[in-house]
Amino acid sequence: MFKRSFITILGLTIFVLATTAFAADKYQWKFVGTKNQCQIYTSDVPGKGYIAAKASCIVPARIETIGMVIKDVANLPKWMEDCAEAKLLKIHDDNDGVIFWFHQHILLKTDRDIVLKSTVNQDYKHGKITIYVDSTKEMNYDAGKEYVRMPSFSAVWTLQWIDREHTRVTYMIDPDLSEGIPKFIANRVIKINPYNTLQKMTKIAENPKYIEEGKNSRHFKIIEEFIKTGDLKP
After folding, report:
1. What domains does the chain contain, in order, with CATH numbers?
2. How far apart are CA 21 and CA 30, in angstroms?
3. What integer pLDDT is reported at residue 13 of this predicted model?
4. Three-class secondary structure of residue 76 per DSSP
């Protein structure tokens, strides 16, 4: 069943609980501006000097194609901003939830890393897929290098159906990059990360590999059935 297995990843975890890092009352999003028809926002984070950031863009790709892009953990470095490496460690449920290692490059500073856990929620009645990502201590991974382990990292992907060939993708991040990086530099990096990530995702979603994987997936057939019955609505 499609509702029990779709998109994994980056950004994923703690399935719509009040304790989720992106609980609605935690952030006061401020509109920064529009760039290439994408909306950019930032928010202070209570108790932290670091900001959270998000961007929202309309991607000219099918929702299942974007799902295939996000699901491909090993290839995150090809399009996710500042991601140097990513390694799948474990599939933790039958709904494509995963635990993976994430290596973030920091220019002129020691690189960061962290272990993340993802959880996926499909709400096809409203044409929406939400992917939660949070740091986890359920598994440990030692990369064998002297990276700085980030104290915490949270992200949320929202895929909102527009029509068969377009999807609104919103990506939100709340990372703690740890000590050693001046806050103004860290916040500048965080602010542009979601926008740059979505710009590169838009390009890689044109890759025939992901388009074909989407068409050949069980997800394609179920989406088409939702469309036929009129049950998939924005």
Report:
1. 2-229 (3.30.530.20)
2. 18
3. 34
4. helix
